[in-house]
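Teaching assistant's notes for section 4

Start the section by putting this record on the projector. Ask students to predict, before seeing the second block, whether Oligopeptide transporter 4 will look compact or extended. Collect guesses on the board.
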Amino acid sequence: MSRSKFFLVVLICSFVWAFVPGYLFQSLTSISWVCWVFSKSVTAQQLGSGMKGLGLGAFTLDWTAVSSFLFSPLISPFFATVNVLVGYVLFIYVVMPTAYWGMNLYNAKTFPIFSSHLFASNGSPYKIADIVNQQFQLDTEAYDKLGRINLSIFFAISYGFNFATIAATITHVGFFYGKEIYHRFRASQQEEPDVHTKLMRKYEDIPAWWFYSVTALSMIVSLILCTVLKDQVQLPWWGFLFACAMAFTFTLPVSIISATTNQTPGLNVITEYVMGLIMPGYPIANVCFKVYGYISMSQAISFLADFKLGHYMKIPPKSMFIVQFVGTVVAGTVNLIVGWWLLGSVENICQDQLLPPNSPWTCPNDRVFFDASVIWGLVGPNRIFGSNGNYIALNWFFLFGAAGPVIVYILHRIFPTHKWILLINIPVLTGATALMPPASTLNFNSWLLYGIIFNFFVFRYRKKWWQRYNYILSAGLDAGAAFMGVLLYFTLTMENRTIKWWGTGGEHCPLASCPTAKGVDLGPDSVCPVF
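Reveal the predicted structure now:
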């Protein structure tokens, strides 16, 4: 079968099947069978829930759930998948049970085991609106009266692993690629071009002023926003320039990790941390700083990846630049328009407690983004991760992360014949769960399963099939599910046409988010028992 025909067959099959978990039988998105067996046990549901727990035995038959956060597992190198697996198992099945059941760390049992929400000390949701004044700044008197913000144990430790990841990225690239970066930079003008570069010489190169013009225009517009709308944006002009400097500094090391592992560490936490220390109490400033520092770097890496693909596919560089420039402008404009439209047209959008089970409008990414703006911007890291907070010990993860690659490097120098040591990638291992939340254990379970099946077993025992069809299969699955998602929205979801039966009632783990500390009562409307 030709690759084109194979792609078409996979696309059609994926398109048709996506209708089942996407509409008819939505519980197939999260098959948490442990919850079905132990329907009255809080502990069992905490262990077995794929959406709100540790996901023991949970899996999905919905491709969008597999690839929605980590992208397709079929395109990830196997050694990177193994690093993700080790980091995931270490965090979810070693650290989490020890911290929650073994140590009750940070009063973990008072709060849900897995949640991105913010809580008061008694386990109730934190009343964020009560600590914000009219200028969208922290009301310190109200905060002192309401008390410290508390995080679920999962959310708290995930921040620690994020600290470790960014520190590990710097030391890993420095020790393993520092010399190569230096030599390549010095030899960049003298090296003989490879075959791809020779073939690309028949096309006219992109004028440097194109890049300079886009950069200058973007920076001028941003500086105007920071100056003219300073009360609304809250970010001073020097904060914007500092964010750009951070993005520029981290683009190279993060690009190297991304290029070699297909896993991209984020700057979201470190940018939030830095700006939170500089300007605590200003949530909008923190969000803007994160966007300029983190998303700028992320977009730069995406831009480079597309150019690399175009280089190998022999696409004219000018065409690649124009397509990406126009695509960015169009996509950004359309996303903004659609976002405002959805906020005004979808009832209870992003309010997961008011939405039906398996609703597509819970906005998990946006919820984490909002909570992060409260943690790092409004309240500030000093009141949470500093001397005035509950989680100061998590700062040690910076040291652990920085030391990890150094230890691996020393082991490699002591045992140079053991090639597998070089496959240990600490930034990927510690950053394996960086997307959780909003990602859940369900997403990781299935991603790891399919990644191991195709990039180990199929690669080893059906290598010719893997070489010919693996990436085509990945593209077909993505395309089919995406087309069905659009069709479902405009034909059924938009018209609020739903069906109700057991198979559309979510994953059926209502007790997974219950606290287990003695005396915690969430009120008469809660399904959680009081211990």
